[in-house]
Write a structure and sequence with these properties.
alpha+beta; single chain; two-stranded antiparallel sheet
Length: 60
Amino acid sequence: MAVPKRKKSKSRRNMHRSHHAIKPKNIVVCATTGEFMLPHNIAVDNSYKGKRVFIKQKAE
């Protein structure tokens, strides 16, 4: 089992954790609806990059 030879100082501990912060999500505005959404996802109205992707069919 690996055991540290020396105690890691508060400064070095915090420098090690500097990349652990939560980054803000990238939010874009939908071209068709104008709503906020995550990039590379289908919008609420089933459009992607301004084009309809899924067309709802009537239940038979």
